Each structure stands twice: as structure tokens, then as C-alpha cells.
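JOB MANIFEST
job_type = single_chain_structure
chain_count = 1
residues = 138
[input]
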Amino acid sequence: MANIEVTSFVLYTLALFAYIAGFVAFFVISRRMLRRLGYDARTVMSHWSVAAWRSGILVSLALAFAGRTTSIETTDPERAVWHNAEGELIFFFAVRVAVAALLICALWMLRKRISSLIMGRPVMAPAAQSAPSSGDLG
């Protein structure tokens, strides 16, 4: 391998491990803090974007391990771009950008929820509380 390929591979690997470490650290620290404050961490940390991000990670892993094809059996140049090796890499990159966008959405929403709980303004209605009765309102 050329020197630039080795350098890019090392940087990519370091970025991958930093991504995973940051994700794990955020969720572990957040869950511990929520439990310490008396909140149900599972309820607070559940959001559709977290589930979509986890599914996107699985799709991304499946694409990473899928076989790459280099033979093109079409005469249409526009279609051929998406069937050769560079086209597959472009598609894989697009999927990874979408997964990163889901992660940003998930972190933003969880940050809002957690900070509002810490500040005493719950965004979510507590599961154990019921709606106030008419006697409580006046």
C-alpha cells in the first residue's frame, strides 16, 4: 500500500474508535446521572432517532461486509456509475452520512430532555403521575 493509503486507513480507524468511544461514554454517563437523580433512564433515553440510528448502524455494517462488484454489464453510463466500485462507495458514504445525521438528531433530543430534567422543567410527562383533578385546579 502507498504511504497515503496507510495514513488514511490509520486516521479512519482512529476516527471510528473515537466515534464509538464517544457514543458509549455519552450514553453510560447519561444513564448513570439519570439513575442517580431518580429518573428512569430507559424512558428518558428512548427516542425514535436513537432506534433509527441503531438500525442505521446495522445497515451500515451490512453494507461494509457486503461483497463489492466490479463488473459492469450495462451500456448506460449513468446506471453504470452506481454499479461499479466507486458507485458503491458513494452509496455507502451517503448511508453513513444519513446515519451520522440520525446520531446528531438523537444526541440533540436527548441533550434537551436531560438538561430540562436537570433544570426542573420536564419535557416528558412522568408515567406515574395522573392528570390533575378538578379539585386541584382551583
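[summary]
The chain has two domains: 1-46, 47-122.
The chain has five helices and no strands.
exit_status = 0
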